[in-house]
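Continuing the series of single-chain predictions for the mutant panel. This is the parent chain; the variants come on the following pages.
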Amino acid sequence: MEYFKCCLLACLILIPLSSYSEKKTPEQKLGRLLFTDKSLSLYRNQSCESCHSLKRLKIVVNELNDDKNLFIQPAPSFAHPDNIRHGSVVAEGSVHGRFGTLNTPALAYGRFSPFFRWDNQFGWLGGVFWDGRAKNLSDQAGKPILNPLEMAMPSKWAVASRLQENPKYVKKFRKIYDLDIEAIPSYELAPRNITPPPGVFSVFDALSKALASFQNSSTFNKFNSKYDYVIAGQTNFNDKEKMGFELFNGKAQCARCHFSSMGNAPDGSEFPALFSSYTYLNIGAPYNINIQNQPPPHPGIGGREEVKRSDKEGKLLGAFKVPTLRNVALTPPYMHNGVLSSLNEVVHFYNSRDTKFRVCTSVNDAGFSIGCWPTPEFPESMVFGAVGDLELSAEEEASIVAFLHTLTDNYPVWGNINGLDDPNVPPGTPSPFTASIFP
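Parent structure:
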């Protein structure tokens, strides 16, 4: 799929809007309990929140480990705390020594990704995970619980038995879904080669639905970044941010696949930009040797069987879903393999991928990003044209990074601390889009 097609998808992606409110529904409250419950992992040591933090993280910003050098994130990242704090790339699962093979994606604004599907004009789009292997959030929510490299529960039946241990779950599953968890025989006492009893799959489906419902809530979809208030006409970019926004939409060509324009909901109300086309691209990221156990390069969507059947020439090898850029300043390291450590590196990579000699052998070489970029993981299928030689100056790169910081949520808080003061958006100011996103 050619790179330029991304910009045309804005008119094709229908944003699913439902009836939401700032007050959590019973199902969303259940979803939060499940999201933070470590007992749903094999060794009771990991929850969804372990890899997708709900908290504002404290980060040491230099080598001096004292309180004066701690930075508190302005908003939750919904990404892996260790990756953010220490620059690690992938997450260790419930089983010690087992690691994933891709950088843990953030969950913020995940509900807006369309159902995974094939489009006759634009190819594969939508879905959840880097390679879109889950068609939507409900399909995604339960997969980490059963993944042997993540929470590692052996079966859906084992998960149902863990739920039985908590009286709150017994009560809530009965009240919300009319499901009797206690009626399911214990997994621990049953032979491993028998068919799961009735009710197991319904319980696991309900668990996935509750987790997805929580991720659909305003907790993950705040729409209260500085960008949102600027677009709503309530405040203004500073000069550097404004320059970055103009470059983002113009010379740097970022908006061709990270849409920055407003859209319209079915009821006619406007919703803000989501900064993703939800398509799949190979932008030529180099291999990251710092991934634990050094697995082979991940083929992305091009490695999926249903995709390979129509992609005989491997044009989608190394292609990953275009992520939203909302809260991107909070979620280092970057790219599907975490090969880039900062937004400065990301913008510089897009600007200069094709202009530097490929004399680096890895991300650990002294010249990495400064004088050279290593060979891409899948050079034969990477996109050209709008990536790799943008001729941006150092000042222009820095301005784009400044704009990207305006996509961080909780602007009424961070816009009024640490020497900042925005009387147009005082603390407590609601999102200007609450009515259209969560009517």
